[in-house]
Task: inverse folding
């Protein structure tokens, strides 16, 4: 899916006490159009948590989902959101001068989804079937690992590449037996079609467990404005804590910020996404970074691994929120 132009979410003053102060502008580009996957960001904006940190955060949607990392590397935006595997690939193959400094989700959101009424109840039922995907080379590599770890020879499953928007219609029409999916969206769409989704989470079937989305910034910016980025993560942490403590109020704030998304799909997707934010914005579990990189090397997507300190930094984590480090 492509989004034309950018979405700017205006500065809000809710939650501020006292005289308005000059706030530091920070630009954040999402990896995709705004949706419940980004809930803590919009909650932090709507409830004034960024403003209370002295920040005026612009939230931008990308003109093309492939562009945020390169725009951050070029200094066109301060912060970009991207998939962790994509970040590692770009660091290893293009040497983009960026580091990850925080995460939005503790685990992957991806996997495979099928329809129970079509006779698919377990992953081994996909033998001899057709599985759709849209993004190479990551998706085929993930699904082959999931299949092989489950005892299915990947050669016995036909992988079919389609445009992202064509995947779900093909599944619903019976032209595909399963598709690559996000656990908080495509299963909801299937339910709205009065069918029963069967979701196979990638990390439950042998694929690596990693942070789904990470915040990245140019290394020079991290060195020059560390306190700004630390304040940004503090705002995100407050958004996450608020969401966990009062998901109903957080949901209200999210849809007040994005009223055009207030439909049944996004309402349900919000509810399915809440628990995925636990632990954010921590991004410093070494095992997750190591597993992700080893997967990319073993599947020959990248030629070799990089020192982990060239992929991410944990120096900006607001210690007052995580005095014992990242939760495990």
Result:
């Amino acid at each position: 899916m492509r989004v034309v132009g950018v979405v700017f979410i205006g500065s809000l003053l809710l939650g501020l006490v006292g005289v308005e102060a000059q706030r530091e502008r920070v630009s954040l580009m999402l990896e995709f159009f705004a949706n419940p996957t980004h809930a803590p960001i919009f909650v932090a904006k709507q409830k004034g948590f960024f403003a209370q940190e002295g920040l005026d955060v612009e939230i931008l949607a990308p003109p093309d989902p492939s562009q945020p990392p390169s725009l951050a590397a070029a200094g066109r935006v301060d912060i970009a959101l991207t998939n962790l595997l994509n970040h590692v690939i770009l660091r290893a193959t293009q040497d983009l001068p960026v580091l990850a400094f925080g995460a939005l989700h503790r685990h992957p959101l991806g996997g495979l989804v099928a329809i129970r009424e079509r006779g698919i109840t377990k992953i081994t039922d996909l033998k001899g079937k057709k599985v759709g995907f849209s993004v190479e080379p990551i998706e085929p590599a993930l699904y082959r690992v999931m299949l092989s770890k489950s005892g299915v020879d990947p050669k016995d499953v036909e992988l079919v590449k389609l445009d992202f928007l064509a995947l779900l219609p093909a599944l619903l029409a019976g032209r595909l037996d399963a598709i690559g999916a996000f656990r908080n969206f495509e299963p909801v769409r299937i339910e709205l079609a009065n069918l029963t989704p069967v979701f196979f989470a990638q990390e439950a079937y042998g694929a690596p467990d990693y942070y789904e989305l990470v915040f990245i910034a140019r290394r020079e910016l991290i060195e020059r404005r560390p306190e700004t980025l630390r304040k940004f993560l503090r705002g995100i942490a407050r958004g996450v804590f608020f969401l966990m403590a009062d998901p109903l109020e957080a949901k209200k704030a999210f849809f007040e910020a994005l009223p055009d998304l207030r439909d049944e799909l996004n309402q349900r997707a919000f509810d399915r996404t809440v628990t995925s934010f636990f632990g954010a914005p921590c991004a410093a579990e070494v095992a997750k970074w190591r597993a992700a990189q080893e997967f990319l090397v073993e599947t020959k997507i990248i030629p070799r691994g990089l020192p982990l300190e060239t992929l991410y930094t944990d120096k900006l984590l607001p210690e007052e929120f995580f005095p014992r480090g990242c939760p495990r």
In short: Residues 1-20 have pLDDT under 50 and may be disordered. The first strand starts at residue 24 and ends at 29.
